[in-house]
Write a structure and sequence with these properties.
Keywords: Repeat
Strand content: under 5%
Radius of gyration: 22 Å
Distance between the termini: 65 Å
Largest sheet: 2 strands, antiparallel
Pfam family, one: HEAT
Protein name: PP4R1 phosphatase
Shape: elongated
GO molecular function: protein phosphatase regulator activity
InterPro entries: ARM-like, ARM-type_fold, HEAT, HEAT_type_2, PP2A_Regulatory_Subunit_A
Strand order of the largest sheet: 1-2
Order of helices and strands: HHHHHHHHHHHHHHEEHH
């Protein structure tokens, strides 16, 4: 019954955590018994079971419970098969979604050598716009996962393609992640290639694309600033933040937090 397999998948992560904590007693139980089940359920005929398997896999990766050898020899080959050009449409959409989500949890070498070539292929998938949409929405995360060299050599040409896609939702997704892509490139690429590309989005015929581009204008401009002097940096979740200067830190060193400082000011004002 699919409901039984789904319930089983939901129990895998806590069991895996228990086995990890009790590793001297169960040194190989997870790798021999549980990991093969997770991998097998990624191709289950029932979509609810597959979804539970995907969620379990991502939790296991987040908790760093999957060995590098299992990732490269078991997980990645399955995802590459599911995202192949002749794969079933539903399986392909699910596979590219997992690839994008897990990229930030894997080593740069694994992503660049095993997943990046397939991601670049999927960016040009002419059959399913849903696949290209997922690639566009997660483009900044992939750039961050592989670093500047691979981004400029392989990903920027694909980004240009997506920014001129005939589906306006694709161009809108590119505008929304423009800052994250720009942050991964060199100042020269930012100035000579991404700036003209951004102008094309901000002048797009679709108002939804233009609106998304205008909302990304400030964050995009911020990537031209020197982080050491401007104090701007990108958090792990991809959002732009401001690092307080040394002078601000020294000024507030006696204060427990900025919130308390504000509360004290408001109290004095009353």
């Amino acid at each position: 019954e699919p409901t039984v397999r789904t319930e089983l998948m939901e129990q895998i992560p806590p069991i895996a955590i228990f086995l990890q904590e009790s590793r001297p007693k169960f040194p190989t139980a997870f790798f021999e018994y549980l990991m093969p089940i997770v991998v097998r359920y990624l191709t289950d005929v029932n979509n609810q079971v597959r979804k539970a398997g995907q969620e379990a896999l991502l939790i296991l990766l987040e908790q760093d419970l999957v060995a590098q050898s299992d990732i490269e020899n078991k997980v990645c080959p399955i995802l590459l098969d599911l995202s192949a050009p002749d794969s079933d449409d539903e399986y392909k959409v699910e596979a590219v979604n997992i690839i994008c989500k897990m990229a930030s949890m894997l080593s740069r070498t694994t992503v660049e050598h095993m997943l990046l070539p397939r991601f670049c292929e999927l960016c040009s998938d002419g059959k399913l716009f849903q696949v290209r949409k997922i690639c566009a929405a997660n483009f900044g995360d992939i750039c961050n996962a592989v670093g500047q060299e691979a981004t400029e050599r392989l990903l920027i040409p694909k980004f240009f393609e997506l920014c001129s896609d005939s589906v306006w939702g694709m161009r809108k997704a590119c505008a929304e992640c423009f800052m994250a892509v720009s942050y991964t490139t060199s100042p020269e690429v930012r100035r000579s290639k991404l700036s003209p590309l951004f102008i094309s989005l901000i002048s797009d015929t679709c108002r939804w694309v233009r609106q998304a581009a205008f909302q990304s204008l400030g964050p995009f401009i911020s990537t031209f600033a020197n982080p050491s002097s401007a104090g701007l940096y990108i958090r792990e979740d991809g959002t732009l933040s401001i690092r307080p200067s040394a002078q601000d830190v020294n000024t507030n060193s006696c204060q427990p937090s900025n919130n308390i400082t504000l509360m004290s000011s408001s109290t004095n004002a009353t």
